[in-house]
Design brief:
mainly alpha
Length: 200
């Protein structure tokens, strides 16, 4: 039973360590090269959309009953294909649009929460929710007026989060493995040997 548990923990620890190291390297890359990371994501998204559009158009032409070019499948496929090509040619477009939309949503959300926070402050004098709401609005405004720099900031935050998570995961994996090794009784074999000699 203990050997089975030890084997499972060992496999889990090895897997956790491998993924943690991969996440650490990924986090460092996102932290140091956010622009490159954004471009890579945009190119991958562009390729996926182009392939998606091609598949949709092929399905339209392969369906003999579909001869109407106003068909939803054809229009969707053509739109996705064109949008994918645009992203591949101008990857910074998507890098600007997404943070812009995210910024608008954050401002709306932050203002809404701020109004509630001000009402709650009259009751319990809790200023932390007000500060949090203001920070959300400020960060949203930053994304709206400088979306690409905002996108870089988000990527770097993700990189830092990956690094911190991976380090904590490594520490936990080593701690579990060390605890299991420590709890194993190293004298068990000697006790059995002593009992054997007494029987003789």
């Amino acid at each position: 039973m203990e050997n089975n548990l030890s084997t499972k923990v060992k496999k889990m620890s090895i897997t956790s360590i491998v993924f943690a190291l991969l996440f650490i390297f990924t986090g460092i890359f996102l932290l140091l090269k956010p622009e490159t990371a954004i471009n890579i994501v945009c190119y991958v998204l562009g390729v996926i959309l182009v392939l998606w559009g091609v598949v949709s158009i092929i399905q339209f032409f392969s369906d003999k009953s579909s001869n109407n070019y106003l068909s939803l499948n054809f229009i969707f496929g053509a739109f996705v294909f064109i949008f994918g090509i645009i992203i591949l040619i101008k990857p910074t477009i998507i890098a600007s649009i997404v943070p812009l939309l995210l910024g608008v949503w954050m401002v709306i959300n932050g203002v809404t929460k701020l109004s509630y926070s001000l009402l709650i402050y009259k009751i319990n004098k809790n200023i932390l929710s007000i500060i949090g709401s203001i920070l959300i609005v400020v960060f949203g405004i930053m994304l709206i007026f400088n979306p690409f720099e905002g996108a870089k900031g988000i990527v770097q935050i993700i990189g830092i989060a990956l690094i911190v998570y991976s380090i904590l995961d490594l520490i936990e994996s080593f701690t579990i493995a060390f605890s299991l090794k420590k709890d194993t009784d190293p004298t068990e074999g000697k006790i059995v040997e002593a009992q054997y000699k007494e029987k003789n």
